[in-house]
Design brief:
The structure is a homodimer. With about 450 residues, chain A is α+β, with helices and mostly antiparallel strands. The first copy, chain A, has two domains: about 325 residues, Bira Bifunctional Protein, Domain 2 (BirA Bifunctional Protein, domain 2); about 90 residues, Rossmann fold, CATH 3.40.50.800. Chain A is built from 13 helices and 19 strands. The two termini of chain A are about 25 Å apart. At the A-B interface, α1, β1, β3, β4 and α3 of A face α1, β1, β3, β4 and α3 of B. β3 of chain A pairs antiparallel with β3 of chain B, so a sheet runs across the interface.
């Protein structure tokens, strides 16, 4: 990682950026294959929009024009802290010009004025997919969102194995209500802390803060302990003996998501019903998602979301949606810093074209241009130094091939693989590097992980 | 264009965003073929960095954490207003880990707290390429930068013809000095206004403000009037009878750029030596670039830059550079709004897979998945409506093909081109759409331009 002169604002070196670009290209490819359209929203939103959800007000960066005292025409703008609130606003602004159900992906920087700490950044890239409809959104889109993000994560073959954890707010709220909990939301807020607080303390909080009896508290903790990779969670929940209509709806919905994602599991991505997942945010109304990397529990959930039936509303209509958001920076920066994840080279160039001498630069330019015309990235040596020094220019950048134009008329061109030392005659109008060397590749070396699980 | 609820912060509809993505993909491809590596810098820089260049202080957006009164740990941050100042800082921060000469491209949003007006935005995307070296940067990189951006613009085949205008600060400063101008910088600042102010007024300003004699002023205006598409400007300048060593260097350098770009001119991109181009920014020391679209003069220069020999310095070294910056938003938003420029469809999907009925959704999903496995973007109909209504779903999004899975076992799959109405039997494991329909295309319809030239 480069020198970070501003804490919480990570920047990547060129080779690291190639890894990030490769990840973004892969994500985009998956999303587009599933028909998701890209949008971007402005970075700034009115503060009253940003603060509407309440929970995050400490973390917003407020904007002020340096010389704006006198006019104040853009007072009250802040930088967006996620992509869900701006997307909701975009849908309302443009509802008349969008086709519903509307599938979109959105990859942008977001900003939070947090105190920087492990895994927390003040500027970071979020990758969101959502499907939003007008009035009603069929449940199969919950399955679709899970599948698309699951597939997108599966395609990132350098990732450690990960658990894609699914739950359903109706299931847990129905369970708490069926149990007779006086404050189902309070129970949910407490259970949401179950990863950070020991079960005994959770039980005490459920009794003292959420008004449950000790038996009820035990039932809630038991529910949160259920975790299955198939639909057997349904029987385990039923065995707890709680009944409620909303619980039944939740069980059915969750079973559909787990069933619908079964063929995704490829060893790297394990889809699980995990009944402790609650998500803090108020706007979720059904399916909820979290995602954890094996061996990287300290990162928390790197990919979260859920169903929101009433987040997006105006005077005329409601736009229910379901979505999931990948915290790309939170995922990638630790992997770059602590594993061997890197790019096979720090520049796009597959070939460095050497210079016979400075006056023949146009000839070397012509070779490079012939290569580029067939999609081979090429650069010309910066100076007509001795060939050994020109080869060093390629080596330092990881460029695999050096091209030698003829030093006198009639002689052939030659190209050298500087890794093997092999040098062969070649025609600039025909030669191609091996497919694997065409573009920089992501290299996942020895997976040195935390070992904290 | 969508409803813009915040003036100066343009947002694109999904179809318009597809055009923007296509442009960005094309630019990236050209830059990478030439060995330029991508970097991104953080959006926020310390205010003292941002204000170092002085000229732009009115336009900076200052950041403040909403709840930061008490700590003030990130007081003094502002949003970057261009990508050159942050790039200079990035080079200094990471000099030890970069390979020089360092070629980079950078595509990011920038922010300026300007009063919104035609062609001015508060948030917009800049596309920059630069080459920076340590201590010395060979002049051939000036030619390289011009060629790469020229090629990148040439590849955008929906653009109106454009003039890529090159000049050289050494040429004009040497001319003013050879003429005996007491304040060469003052002359340059006045000549920089020549597009906005009539020549007679320029002449008066040169005499009254820059201290020239009427004859000297005439010479300066004559110099600014020289514009050639080849190196004949050299003789035209010499004919003015002014002599100075710096003028000679500038003439040689400018001739090299014009000569080096000669084979770029393809009808759409005309490279010209234009001796009125001065660029307001203080840090340019040699080559300067501007770019104007035929018929869109009111947009001003959409792509500008130049050579800066001493912008990037620290206690140990100087990092001379040359670069050019394309104002993508300033270019694209007016073209989208005022010409027929659009995407052939508003979603990535080439195929909508119809539903026989809701229970057969898994079969339709399997068809879509088989298509995606061969790179064909596909979505499944949102609901099992009558086929006519499912076809309408595709029509409204511009999706060219609708796929009909068999309604009973043993029957074949069929696919319909909804533009021609042609419907044929097809195998989901083999069928491919025509190449032209694989991805959304950029469509440049009737070029309704301003006609202001």
């Amino acid at each position: 990682m480069p020198v970070t002169s501003l804490s919480g604002f990570p920047e990547l070196l060129p080779g690291e950026r190639i890894v990030e670009q490769s990840v973004l290209d892969s994500l985009r490819r998956t999303f587009e294959l599933h028909g998701f359209a890209s949008i971007e929203t402005r970075a700034a939103e009115p503060m009253d929009q940003l603060l509407r959800k309440g929970e995050i007000d400490k973390e917003v960066y407020v904007l002020r024009r340096l010389q704006a005292e006198e006019d104040g025409d853009d007072a009250g703008l802040g930088l967006h802290f996620d992509l869900t609130v701006p997307f909701a606003r975009y849908v309302l602004d443009n509802a008349g010009q969008l086709e519903f159900p509307f599938r979109r992906y959105q990859i942008q920087k977001v900003w939070r004025g947090e105190r920087p700490q492990e895994g927390r950044y003040r500027e970071f890239t979020q990758v969101d997919i959502d499907v939003v409809a007008r009035d009603t959104l069929a449940f199969h889109h919950d399955v679709e969102i899970a599948r698309v993000m699951g597939e997108a994560l599966s395609a990132l073959d350098f990732l450690p194995p990960l658990r894609f954890q699914v739950n359903n707010r109706k299931l847990i709220e129905g369970f708490y209500r069926g149990l007779g909990a006086p404050d189902a939301a309070g129970v949910m807020r407490t259970i949401d802390k179950i990863d950070k607080i020991p079960p005994a303390a959770i039980r005490t909080m459920l009794v003292e803060d959420a008004g449950l009896s000790p038996d009820q508290a035990d039932q809630c903790v038991a529910l949160a302990g259920i975790r299955t990779t198939d639909t057997s969670f349904v029987e385990q929940v039923r065995a707890l003996g709680v009944e409620h209509d909303l619980l039944e709806v939740g069980l059915t919905e969750l079973a559909q998501v787990v069933d619908g994602c079964r063929d995704l599991a490829d060893g790297r991505v394990r889809v699980e019903a995990d009944l402790r997942i609650a998500r803090g945010l108020d706007y979720y109304t059904g399916t909820v998602f979290e995602t954890r990397l094996d061996g990287w529990d300290s990162l928390g959930s790197i990919c979260s979301g859920g169903r929101y039936d009433s987040l997006v509303t105006d005077a005329r209509a409601t736009y229910p949606g379901v979505g999931i958001s990948l915290g790309l920076t939170r995922l990638l920066v630790p992997l770059l810093a602590r594993t061997g994840l890197s790019a096979s080279r720090s520049v796009p160039s597959a070939v460095l074209v050497a210079l016979v001498d400075e006056p023949s630069r146009p000839s070397s330019n012509a070779v490079a241009q012939a290569l580029r015309a067939r999609g081979v990235a090429a650069e010309v040596a910066p100076a007509a130094q001795k060939y050994g020094r020109q080869i060093r220019v390629a080596e330092r950048r990881g460029i695999p091939f050096v091209w030698f134009p003829p030093s006198e008329p009639g002689r052939p061109h030659e190209v050298k693989d500087i890794r093997s030392g092999e040098q062969v005659e070649a025609d600039p109008a025909e030669w191609l590097p091996p497919e694997l060397d065409r573009a920089p590749r992501v290299v996942a070396a020895g997976d040195e992980v935390e070992g904290d699980t």
